[in-house]
Amino acid sequence: MGMRILGWGTALPDKVVTNEDLERTLDTSDEWIVDRSGIRERRIGESTAALAAAAGRKALERAGVEASSIDLLILATTTPDQTVPATSAAVHRALGLAGGGFDLNAACSGFVYGLVAAHGLLATGTRRVLLVGAETLSRITDWSDRNTAVLFGDGGGALVLEHVPGEGQLLAFDLGLDGEAREILMADVGGTIQMDGREVFKRAVRVVVESAKRTLDRAKVRADEIKLLVPHQANIRIIQAACDRLGIDRERAAIVLDRTGNTSSASIPLAFADAIDSGRLEDGDLVLMTGFGAGMTWGSALLRWQDPGTGTLPGREDGSHDD
Ligand code: UT7
Question: Least packed by Cβ within 10 Å: which of 3, 49, 127, 211?
Fold first, then answer.
């Protein structure tokens, strides 16, 4: 049993905050931010539920399926709109979904955790899942702290996933957590993000490379066979270091962080959708998603891309889907 991707969608708030905007209130510069992180601007505003619903709605439209055909909503977020109920309840209501729903917090690895959770549920009887990563990190950012304020942004990204007999599109994965490192990146309830940037950077490169390698090994795939790397969008230097150590050309990485900043759970689906919409993938291409985040969590997933609108989808010889 496996899963396949039926549709994808993204959402970003309208308000753009450029590095020049931040120069006006912080002791920083566009040059420093671009040089040290690769970020040029970020989007800010709306609620996590609104961004999640907007991305989810587009993914449903792209998939061509009714909201009422969704059995389960998984919302990966570290910035729920309130403690109780889960933000997925508001998204479920806004979209008119059927079935269950829950929030998942694995920090910036959340979308990969959600993908693996969805895969397991689709393999055991759930027919269709809407998986969303959405964040409003601007609400937990200390806008007077130059160490963190220049890095984060808001956004959402979603996939519609469907059960298929046979292997499907998720070929291998790796998830991990090192709770010893939980204090290097954290926010208390009601507080703002506190981060030891250098320590996160060092560990991030290591865990991403190790996790990606384990995933490739499990699928018996070589790094040079990867057509598209979809890394967590935290820092261009982390992505480049990971590419170099893995032996994946830097040009093969999907990058949106220059326009979005670090959007935590939303960053991998934003980068993935951007690569699909830019025509970077052909049927059969191998895609490696890999993320890391507070906890410290990490997660990688190896997928075989298949355009849902063309060709033969894994598990369905005629490429059909039921609705
Ligand atoms: O989703 C996971 C979230 N987090 C991450 O992935 C973050 C990982 N870490 C990083 O991306 C990088 O460590 C940063 C971008 C946060 C910082 O880059 P860095 O090259 O590691 O800089 P640094 O922390 O070593 O700081 C270098 C200097 C320091 O000044 P001194 O001590 O050398 O005088 C900082 O105070 O840069 C200073 N600095 C800044 N200067 C201008 C720190 N932030 C800024 C800033 N503008 N915004």
Answer: 127
Instruction: Look up tokens 């032996």; give the residue.
Output: 247
Mean pLDDT of 221-246: 98
Q: Mean pLDDT across the stretch 215-237?
A: 98
From the CA of 163, how far away is ligand 1's center (Å)? 43
Least confident of 46-50, 92-96, 138-142, 164-168: 164-168
Give the pLDDT confidence score for residue 18 in this predicted structure: 98
Instruction: For strands 194-195 and 185-186, give the pairing.
Output: antiparallel
CATH superfamily of 170-304: Thiolase/Chalcone synthase (3.40.47.10)
Gap from CA of 114 to ligand 1 centroid (Å): 30
Question: Is position 119 annotated as part of the catalytic site?
Answer: no
DSSP assignment string, 217-284? HHHT--GGGEEEEEE-SS-HHHHHHHHHHHT--GGGB---HHHH-B-GGGHHHHHHHHHHHTT---TT
Residue 315 has pLDDT above 50, yes or no: no
Name which of 262, 2, 266 is nearest 158 in CA terms: 266
204 lines ligand 1 (CB under 6 A): yes
Distances from the Cα of 296 to the Cα of 66, 134, 186, angstroms: 37, 19, 10
Identify the active-site residue in 19, 105, 235, 262. 262
- What is the reported pLDDT for 309? 86
Q: What does DSSP assign to residue 167?
A: S
Q: Quote the pTM value.
A: 0.96
Is 243 annotated as catalytic? Answer: no
Ranges of each domain in the chain:
2-164, 170-304
Q: What is the spatial distance between Cα 135 and Cα 65, in angstroms, rounded to a whole number? A: 25
